[in-house]
Amino acid sequence: MCGRFGFFELKYFIDQLRQLELPFVESPDFRYAAGYNIAPESSVVALLGNHGRCTLTLAHWGMIPHWAKDRPKVRPINARAETLASKPYFRHMLNRQHCLIPASGFYEWKRTQGTGKQPYYIHLKDGSPMAFAGLWDTWRPPEPQAPPITSCTIITTDANREMKPIHDRMPVILEQEHWKLWLEAGSPEAVRLLVPPVDDRLEIYPVSTRVNNPQYIRSDCIDQIEDDLLDNLQHPS
Q1: How many Cβ atoms are within 10 Å of 86's Cβ, its own excluded?
Q2: Phi, psi for 212 (deg, rounded to 5)
Q3: Is residue 177 among the annotated active site residues?
Q4: Residue 67 to residues 71, 89, 112, 139, 142: CA-CA distances in angstroms?
Q5: How many angstroms separate the CA atoms of 186 and 183, rounded?
Q6: Nearest to 153, CA basis, from 180, 175, 135
Q7: Which of 32, 69, 76, 101 stands 20 to 30 A from 45 (CA)?
């Protein structure tokens, strides 16, 4: 799964889009702030694909389908790649409304001795931002004056070799050369991209349990903790 991530490299991401000759416009109300511990129900940066037009905007992380009569209690932050075509929440978006959700890296928790869990930070070895495969939709509240809400969800797949010791699921991380194809939602080739990333691309290291608190958003969230401290946390005397 993917329940927490960071994104603090917007300029780098935009530079990548331009190098790939992937045109886009910014939504009029787009406002960016670096995030080191982005939690569900936050506004996240998303590049929305829409019939060949791409818009860089903020989207609510937690899917609200357009057909919902009221704001649903369950707002999925993840969607399993294997069941997108069968789940009512997602199947109407599968071939129509794809997005990229950029991330500098993401967090995952590994169970330790007892009931504890150790957080790990995962990012690309070359330091470039990731782009998660996502779906998006726009919901209009029943109140006449309420503004529409654009929301998104991150697609997950089986863990690759590097991630398996930590968790059995992970977000779909698209290769840069596949970004444009994913945004072309009508292409039958797009869904074939929803697979684990190739091995040996990721760097994974333990970080402080301060990231367990979604209110803790300082840049040291991604700082690696020392091996002796990790050993003390996992094997307390």
Answers
A1: 10
A2: -60, -25
A3: no
A4: 10, 9, 42, 7, 11
A5: 9
A6: 135
A7: 69
Q: Which of 9, 54, 108, 152 is catalytic?
A: 108
| 108 counts as catalytic | yes
Range 58-71 burial, b when 16+ CB lie within 10 A, else e: bbbbbbbbeebeee
Give the domain ranges of the chain. 5-234
- Single out the catalytic residue among 2, 54, 99, 152: 2
The rounded distance, in Å, linking the Cα atoms of 108 and 88 is: 27
Tokens linked to 17: 């889009």
Backbone angles phi, psi at 73, to 5 degrees: -70, -35
pLDDT tens-digit map of 43-85 = 999 999 988 889 999 999 999 999 999 999 999 999 999 999 9
Computed over its alpha carbons, how large is the radius of gyration of the chain? 18
Q: What is the pLDDT of residues 137-163, one digit of tens each?
A: 999 998 888 999 999 999 999 999 999
Contact 151, 64 (CB under 8 A): yes
DSSP state of 222: G
Furthest C-alpha separation in the chain: 60
| CATH architecture of the domain formed by 5-234 | Alpha-Beta Complex (3.90)
